[in-house]
Request: fold
Amino acid sequence: MKDLWVETYRPDTVDGYVFRDADQKRQVQSWITDGGIPHLLFSGSPGTGKTTLAKMLINELGVEKADVLTINASRDNGVEMIRKKISAFSETMPWGNFKVILLDEADHISPEGQAALRGVMEQYHASVRFILTCNYPNRIIPALHSRCQGFHIATLDQTEFTVRVAEILVSNGADFDLETLDLYVKATYPDLRKTINTVQMNVVDHKLQDPKDSVGSTDDWKIQIVGLFRENKVREARKLICSKVRQDEYDEMFQFMYRNLEFFGATEDKQDEAVIIIRNGMVKHTQVADPEINLSATLIELEQISK
Reply:
């Protein structure tokens, strides 16, 4: 069975982690030098490295495996989880200097569960440290924000993002051309984890396949969309978007438009107009009765300014 590249290339040291800027690297290094951390709240988009950073910190601090509890809060997120798992784990003495509880996707924890978590943080502050990760920090109650040091993990620059994926391909002896790699990047950016997984699925006989020829994830409609735009088939791309995008993906779709203005025919002199159209569409989609019609209307407006 193939090893998953996202796990094989998950960095476990400071030097292996790709930081967005030098200040964040200095902050993390200072925690490691001091040999301890405060309660932490890592926020950022999916696939930007929040969980990877948390695990890297735990490794660099030399925390005993028996002193680490990891919980995926998207599946286990109620008050009972706090009482049965977290409280029970926290009340015993650590084998090392302190215990660490990693709560992945903590923004899924119910408000009642978060309130109960606050009490556990206070009760066991001398022996337990919490690391919370979330995509939406506004869903974390103020009482937890005040007890944690916030650490926002910004999206990597798209060039750095592409370089990282290219390095992994080279390490695995996979041939590729930059145009094909860029197609996968544009379809999955800024989720590095998804990009690495998608690229691995589409490497056949040590070559990264063009999505049109691939036996891998050719059903990924976002990759199909990028391919249509590349071929200047704007109307076909618009129809595919409207037929495939789910309502819970509309925010992501509007962000995709904003990141790829050139796909929608927005030349340099029309980009400001395109940004206004997209922003108006983002505002309206939460207010109108039929957000699907609003998305379609936004795409049509973008198509019209390119004429």
In short: The longest strand covers residues 128-134. Residues 24 and 117 are 27 Å apart (CA to CA). The two ends are 50 Å apart (CA to CA). Residues 224-307 form one domain.
